[in-house]
């Protein structure tokens, strides 16, 4: 349970939080952590690498040290352990593109529209997906951010008897790729906006799965879904539609599944008592910016709607602690 704040300094940390965020995004764009991947460097050395004046760069470096992103030894700077592991381009656990492309370029500016969203103004987010550049940025960021949760979900689910997976709103294909690697008999279809197809195809090709993962372009709420599916996955999709849209998607999933087929919902969910967790709640605030009529997703809300659609055998698990959960259910009729 979150402890109520009793100190103005704690409030200030929230108020100033955007400064640290923008500092991180800027350091990533400069590839600051990449320049330090091989070992410590002086401010002059980093200035030569980045093309910045040392006097300006030192201010940025001091802030990075203060935040714990870098460590300083004498006159040289080095990556903190987490920065070395997650913020160096090309590292196995690199997470920087998720912050650079999805959080900085799309989520960060979207929050400026929060006051209008609370009054019912809908952000034109999906028009961004008609722009190939924005679709590419979104999909690259989504891919980097989705690989970890996809691995966790693949461990949770037992799909060894499934043959056909429909990944609705599957974006870059991170979940389809991970699940197909985990279950060799599985074939997947990604249904998402046409502008996403090229980047998804590239990731699928890179994974060597072009013969098992295909793409159907369209809008999840209006395009016909292919029938006869053993599994329908809705990951991060219910938080991107209205409360009414949730019911529409669940009904479409029920129709697309074979009897005994499984639906899997993976999304941001708050506790049933509405007390948090904070990170999941903040992501639902972001969802509200996209669609002011979004549902406050929680396990009990989704379980009730699944049962109303005719699903049974509900199970749920935490995927990203404090942020996302997965709920699965089976279509009646086997």
Give the topology string: H per helix, E per strand: HHHEHHEEHHHHHEHEHEEHEHHEE
CATH topology annotation of the largest domain: Rossmann fold
In the CATH hierarchy, what is the superfamily of the largest domain? Vaccinia Virus protein VP39
For the sheet with most strands, the description reads: 7 strands, mixed
Q: How many β-strand stretches?
A: 10
Strand content: 15-25%
What overall form do the CA principal axes indicate? Answer: globular
Number of domains as seen in the coordinates: 2
In the CATH hierarchy, what is the architecture of the largest domain at level 2?
3-Layer(aba) Sandwich
Percent range for helical residues?
Answer: 40-55%
**Average of per-residue pLDDT values:** 93
Structural class: alpha/beta
Strand order of the largest sheet: 6-5-4-7-8-10-9
The rounded Rg comes to: 21 Å
Report how far the terminal alpha carbons are from each other: 41 Å
Report on the architecture of this protein.
This protein is α/β, with parallel strands linked by helices. It is built from 15 helices and ten strands. The strands form two sheets. The chain has a seven-stranded mixed beta sheet with strand order 6-5-4-7-8-10-9, with helices on both faces. Helix 4 (43-50) crosses helix 5 and helix 10 runs parallel beside helix 11. The two termini are 41 Å apart.
